[in-house]
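Re: the request from the purification team.
They wanted to know what the chain is likely to look like in 3D before they choose a buffer screen. I agreed to run a prediction and write the result into the notebook, where they can find it.
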Amino acid sequence: MRILTSYFQRHHEVPYPIAISRLVPPDFKGSLYSKLAPTRELEEGFYQGRVDSEQYAREYRRLLESRNLAPHLVLQELPFTCTLLCWERPYEFCHRHLVARWIQNATGIAVKEFGSRFIKPGLGMA
């Protein structure tokens, strides 16, 4: 299995793009996997500065648990090769990096940022 992450600006060049955000660009032609999308409230709290990255990670983890999601179950629903997309640029804190670490920690499958050699330490979920 090959899972990548990236952001919408590159959605035309990535293998099998799958949005994991609430909203997508108007020209997005890929699939949507909304089970991994953060809530509007969580996003707004972060962008308005009421929620820091550590609190965001904790709340996002709780959200996944409340949706009864587990990495191995999510992987069963994804194509063998795909790229999980959201809005933030590489090396910016975002939930796709949390998802990448969540999958990698639970399954051992390395999830890499498309076109990047490394994901900045600390972006993922411990």
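For the purification team: Confidence is low (pLDDT under 50) at residues 118-126.
Please add any questions underneath this entry.
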